[in-house]
Each structure stands twice: as structure tokens, then as C-alpha cells.
Amino acid sequence: MPTLPTLPPLREVIATHGLRASKALGQNFLLDEQLLDRIAAVPGPLAGERAFEVGPGPGGLTRALLRAGAQVTAVERDDRCLPALAELGSACPGKLRVIAEDALRIDPEAECGGPAHIVANLPYNVGTALLVGWLESEVWPPWWKSATLMFQAEVAERIVAKPGSDAYGRLAVLAQWRSDARIAMKVHRSAFTPPPKVMSAVVHIVPAEAPAGVDVKLLGRITAAAFGQRRKMLRQSLKGVPGALAALAQAGIDESRRAETLAVEDFVTLARLLGSADAD
Ligand code: SAM
Questions:
Q1: Based on the domain organization, do 236 and 201 belong to the same domain?
Q2: Omega before residue 123 within 30° of 0, cis
Q3: pLDDT digit string, tens, across residues 175-232
Q4: What residues contact residue 69 under an 8 Å CB cut-off, 6+ apart?
């Protein structure tokens, strides 16, 4: 593991640069270097790999990624953090590039310059939108090799949920139809400064082979309709999706079932049938 030059403790960085945590920006900082190293280890060895981080803040996770030997591209929306990140960049010449922008407005593939591991303690207010954008990539395998992401525990449960559970819904289908998703570790709220109200968890997502002949937009449409009225039978919830009831019949799925009883593969089959009906 490459050692970094001696750096001031993160608490000192926060004090020196006046980085009082902003609620609006979802700022809950991680300061425990051992925990940060454990998170940076989730994707596997990073020496010589590209890493993409959203919201480096004072740079705790960024330091761990650099210690692991990654080439880091980080996007931070809070300009107050930039001087602290510039100091970290100077301590590791050529290893850290910081983009001062909203992560929702950049093209991470172009910014990283090649396949990268996404590793981030995500701001809670944009975390799901970012993940959905990464999962809905038209190109598969996508530009990201893996995603190691801190979420509120409840969101993490929705990403890895299995059929029949209350947490199972659009996010689970979207995350699991062509990726492997698991909870890598749970993180107690007291690990953050300031502590958030709820517990957190790190999710690890690795792109897998995509089932052939499925349009991600159609899959999104059918899961949105099915889970939009999750307590209703499919014959009711899918009524507004042209061709969906015929696809249910063709797939041999009883239309009196409810969305949460369908496996991820069932949604994939329905999207594939809808796609081929569109093409006719
Ligand atoms: N990585 C740091 C850590 O683990 O201590 C900070 C994590 S904090 C939960 C979230 C970070 O995301 C903050 O630094 C915040 O300023 C930044 N942020 C919030 N919204 C953002 C956005 N739309 N684009 C980029 N960064 C954002």
C-alpha cells in the first residue's frame, strides 16, 4: 500500500478550512482512517486502477483511495472543500484530479478517461439519482467496473432486496437485472461527523452479463407501472402499458399476482416480450 506524505488529521483540515457540515449538501463526514481503508478495500486491489469519487468533502475517503494506489477523479460541489483537496493533490502529484461541479452535470466516463471503480460516501439527496443514472447506462458493460457506495441503510436494503419483501421494488430490479449487488458492510451513524439520524450501509455493485434483447427503458417503464401500484394486481397496475397484459399471458404470469411476487427474471422476460412486440 503506498504511504502518503504526512498529512494533517482530518479534524484539523475541517477546522482550518472552516468546513462546517452543510445539511443541504448531505455532508456527514467520515474521519476514521481504518474504516475509510476498509471501504476503499471493498472493490478489491486498486493499485494502478482508476477511481471515481463523488463528494470528496475534506478528503477522508480520497486519502484512503490514494493510499490504496488508485488514480482518483473526484467531483465536489462545495467550493469550500477545494483548498483542502488542492493540498491533498499537491501531496500526491499527478494522482488526484478534482472537478468543481455538480456530479449530476458531468460525464464521468469522459472525466475518468477509462473504466473506473466508483467509490463514494454519497450525499443522501442525490445518491439514488446518481445510482439510477449509472445503472441505466445504454452501453453494457458500462464505463464503471464496480460501484462501492455508502447509502442510508434503508436505501441499501432496497437495492439488494429480494422478491416478497417490502423493500423489493424498482431499485432492486434495476440494480439486479444485470449486476450483482450486495451489502458489503453496515456503518453505525456514530461513525459520521455529524452523525445522521439513521444507520448507513456500503453497497457493492458489480456489472454482470446483460440478458440479451432487453431495452432498459422498457424495463424501467414496466417496473415503474408495476410498483407504482404495488398493492394492486398486475392486471390493474399494468393496464396503462400498451402490450403489457399480452406479454403477461405470453410469459405465463398470472395477472392476479402483485409486482412484489415477480422475480427480477420475470420483469426481464416482460420487457423482452414488450420490446419484440414493439419491433413487430
Ligand atoms: N467523502 C466525504 C467523506 O466521506 O467524509 C464526504 C461525504 S458527504 C456524505 C457528501 C459530499 O458530497 C459532501 O462533500 C458534499 O459537499 C458533496 N456533494 C453534495 N452534493 C453533491 C453533488 N451534487 N455533486 C458533487 N458533490 C456533492
A1: no
A2: no
A3: 999 999 999 999 999 999 999 999 999 999 999 999 999 999 999 999 999 999 999 9
A4: 1, 2, 45, 46, 47, 48, 49
Task: State the pLDDT at residue 1.
Answer: 62
Q: Whose CA is nearest to atom 10 of ligand 1?
A: 123
pLDDT in tens, 234-261: 999 999 999 999 999 999 999 999 999 9
Ligand 1 atom closest to the CA of 10, numbered from 1 = 5
Within-domain flag for 255: yes
Ligand 1: residue of 11, 14, 27, 82 to mutate (most ligand atoms within 8 A of CB) is: 27
Same domain, 265 and 177: no
Q: Look up residue 79 and give its three cell numbers.
A: 467550493
Domain that holds residue 58: 10-207
The answer to whether residues 181 and 159 touch, using CB atoms and an 8 Å cutoff, is yes
The verdict on 268 and 190 lying in the same domain is no
* Same domain (yes/no): 171, 275: no
Whole-number Å distance, alpha carbon 185 to ligand 1 midpoint, is 20
Task: Examine residue 5 and state whether it is found in any structural domain, yes or no.
Answer: no
Res. 132: pLDDT tops 70: yes
Q: Which residues line ligand 1 (CB under 6 A)?
A: 25-30, 54-57, 60-61, 75-78, 81, 102-104, 121, 123, 126
Going by CA atoms, what residue is nearest to atom 18 of ligand 1? 55
pLDDT (0 to 100) of residue 186: 98
- Structural domain count, the chain: 2
DSSP-derived pairing of the beta strands 50-54 and 179-187: unpaired
User: Is the omega angle on the peptide bond into residue 5 within 30 degrees of 0, that is, cis?
Assistant: no
Q: Is 145 found in the same domain as 227? A: no
Q: 122 and 15, same structural domain?
A: yes
CATH of the domain at 268: 1.10.8.100
* pTM of the predicted protein model: 0.96
In a domain, 174, yes or no: yes
